[in-house]
Design brief:
Shape: globular
Largest sheet: 9 strands, mixed
Helix content: 40-55%
Distance between the termini: 37 Å
Structural class: alpha/beta
Number of strands: 9
Number of helices: 9
Radius of gyration: 19 Å
């Protein structure tokens, strides 16, 4: 890669103008500067367009619109890009540290993908455990040290491996509401591409719409996410690995129940059921939950 790679960003949003504005502020001043930024607007509202309009004189940002579906949105954003060397897919509720893109370019080397760590607003690991040391990821560690918003992909990787599977991910027309990023990385690994984790690459997340822990909404969300995990295991792993991914939440549910932590046990149980649904392809009814805002 050259000394000043062209970095592009694609962000798909369902209508969170305040957090999108925060992301833009974090992108401004990055080094290297972002060469192009596509906002895929799936909100059907005016707030996102207004944010893009305010920023278009300071950032090379354009807005396109698509129906809902996170993977479909990312693919549409990719199709709208010009030439680039590296592309990232921040969520609309994430933002970058001041040196995020500098660290990405330092870590890229000959790798196809660089992943960093995701932290919450207080600086604690968010969603995954993440590690403290750089590492080349494998089919096991890819689950704990790579997530879509922290991954940056070379153009060569994307051109060779393909796009996000539109049958996986939030808002897709199937029950498999997650796993699209891990699926893409596993496809790349299968084809010989290396994926490296570097903890110096820092992305922050603060989603005010995530249901509170212990609520029925929180458990239902865990079920939907787990379905995608199970589906990816069904696609990429053998029987032993599939069994292990079911045993973990089962053990968590039993341990939590033994300690009298019933909401926590219910969360583990929903993860178990969701993964089982994904692995088997048999989807059981999930009682609908009314939500005040998208999760």
């Amino acid at each position: 890669m050259n000394s000043a790679p062209r970095v592009a960003l694609v962000v798909t949003t369902i209508g969170r103008p305040e957090t999108l504005d925060r992301l833009f502020r974090s992108v401004l001043g990055q080094s290297p500067p972002v060469a192009e930024m596509i906002v895929v607007d799936q909100s059907g509202e005016t707030g996102t367009a207004e944010v893009v309009e305010r920023w278009k004189d300071r950032l090379p940002v354009r807005r396109v619109t698509t129906p809902r579906g996170l993977s479909a949105g990312r693919n549409a954003g990719m199709a709208a890009l010009g030439d680039y060397d590296v592309v990232g897919f921040p969520d609309d509720d994430t933002w970058y540290a001041p040196d995020t893109l500098t660290r990405v370019c330092e870590a890229m080397g000959g790798h196809g993908v660089v992943s960093g760590k995701l932290l919450d607003a207080a600086g604690r690991p968010a969603q995954l455990a993440f590690g403290t040391e750089p590492a080349v990821l494998d089919r096991t560690t890819v689950w704990s040290q790579a997530i879509e918003a922290t991954c940056f992909y070379t153009a060569a990787f994307m051109n060779a491996v393909g796009r996000f599977d539109e049958g996986l991910g939030a808002g897709c027309p199937t029950p498999w509401q997650s796993g699209e990023g891990t699926d893409l990385l596993l496809r790349g690994m299968r084809d010989g591409w290396s994926v490296v984790y570097d903890p110096r690459v820092t992305v922050y997340e603060d989603n005010p719409f995530v249901p509170a822990a212990g609520t029925r909404e929180f458990r239902a969300r865990a079920r939907r996410v787990a379905r995608g995990t199970g589906r990816v295991y069904r696609r990429h792993y053998g029987r032993r690995a599939r069994l292990r991914t079911l045993v973990r939440p089962l053990g968590g549910a039993l341990l939590s129940a033994a300690r009298g932590r019933w909401p926590e046990a219910g969360w583990h149980l929903q993860r178990l059921v969701g993964r089982l649904e994904g692995v088997t392809g048999v989807v059981l009814p999930l009682r609908p939950v009314r939500s005040k805002a998208p999760a």
